[in-house]
Amino acid sequence: MELITILNRCHRFRGFVYHRARFSSDHKSIEVSVRPRKGSSAVCSRCHQPAAGYDQLAERRFEFLPFWGFFVFLLYTMRCVDCRRCCAIVVEELPRRDGKRTLTKAYMLFLARWARRLSWKETAQAFRTSWEKVFDAVEHIVTWGLEHRTPGQIDAIGVDEIQYAKGHKYLTLVYQIDIGIIRLLWVGKERTIESFQGFFTAMGQEVISKIAFVCSDMWEPYLKLIREKCSQALHILDRFHIVANMNKALDKIRAEETGRMKREGRDPVLKKSRWLLLKRSENLGDEQHFRLRDLLRYNLKTVRAYLLKEAFQQLWDYNSPAWAGKFLDEWCRQTMRSRIEPMKKIARSLRQHRELILNYFRAQKLISSGVVEGLNNKAKVTLRKSYGFRTYRVLELALYHSLGKLPEPESTHDFF
Ligand SMILES: [Zn+2]
Question: 197: closest CA among 226, 232, 220?
């Protein structure tokens, strides 16, 4: 069996034939020359129509999947065409190649699939190619996927931000969180009104107008645009963020009080209490339980804030929006009397967003930010993997690639 026979079986393309296969001079690669099929005319790369041949360019090398420890290159002398439609002399279009890239489409798909499982650097190492080529491959596949995806009907979306570099550099991520399909829909630089606006433009009015549920945190630019653009949707505040804010406040109170007690020379009873206080009490072990019980005997701001936080959790057990609302109001009233400023700040913010919080119950608790949180954790893992250069473009591609569930170009052969 000859190499050409195998190639014809797995990677045929119309209008071209494999001519001859040979080793390169250093015997590290196999070079296969490709020629136009007799009688088939070249295709103009501008209008994608057949056109008359004009001249030949220098021979180019296109990288194909490596084979038994040899690099494989397809060698081809590209033609220029004299296109009457475009009134220009243009380089011909090749079916298995994308623009200026030097990888065949089959190899790009192969590399991109591995780049979803490994980091880009590991992919480059495993197939002895460069990080830049892996980048090219992912960029090609993601671009194709974004052009060919169909938004379909989107019922529920979740908006969230993640920090991707020091100095408050954020990305805005929008997910589809329907029961049947959960995927990343859109990535935007920054978390401003202008950047988030990009999502609505990209999806189009028709898709946006059918969205029934939106889940977000309390970031004002998000709230504002959602009010404007998705006025028909039930907007639900992300439960996870409310609890996270409360934990932040508690942490601040504890740190302040610990410092104050130390300065006043009092017993360091709050020492090593951080996780005792931040974890939900039902998640504590036996020993931690005893320590917590011990701690709760003290009349400290930290302890009072902790009890308020724990009491708040009861909110999520309600089913009726009316009763949940009564509970929320009562909790805010108590907290406003607590004289603990960070907790009072939380209460003020909850009062301000009362209706959005209660929308969680109006949506019959069906839309949970847990899904968004899970996706955001995956996004953070994607970012943590080493992608070489942490530019916005790299992160955007990596996120779409791993979470976008994008369609892939079809291939007639499965290169496994
Ligand atoms: Zn043309």
Answer: 226
